[in-house]
Amino acid sequence: MQITTISDTHGLHHQLQLSGGDLLIHAGDVCNRGTQEEAANFIDWFEKQPYTYKVFIAGNHDFFFEHFTQQEIQNILPKNIYYLNDSSIEIEGINIWGSPITPEFHNWAFNRKIGEEINKHWQLIPNNTDILITHGPSFGLLDKTFHNQNVGCVDLLKNVERVNPKYHIFGHIHEGFGVLEHLNTTFINTSSLDFNYKMRKTPFFNFNF
Asked: What's the pTM?
């Protein structure tokens, strides 16, 4: 299966020229201010992309999605688009689980306090997950900010190591863009925009599953 990953487009998705394939994954922050109009614009664009399947999660900028359940959003989406919110889907034998949750920071969407509150979400990740999609990174893995601080989630890392997915797809920390191998998992920070919220020259990753 040919897979393309993007994240953190913040309303600039129209600047992307995607190659097409089997599966397109967006790891959150589809909006900039999180309005209904931005969300609708993204969904319209997402539907038109040349992929058989499209999967996305929300991010901390995506306030619109915070007001609805996973099923309520899914009910308004076109047939080949799947929205994940602490939920999973199987596509051609590949088990995918996604969550928009990130550690608490200011007053963003889908924030949870570190410790027990956020760990409740990560403990939901099924053991048979092949591709894990979270908006934010695990601690110490492509999570370093411009100020040289690691800001990923410690509890997320513990659960990724528990589940051992083949791929962990995320964004959130634009500066962490890249690919890293840890144990048996390939970690991909697929933030499409750079630290200055400008589209990268190479804004997405392609790989075969």
From this structure: 0.98
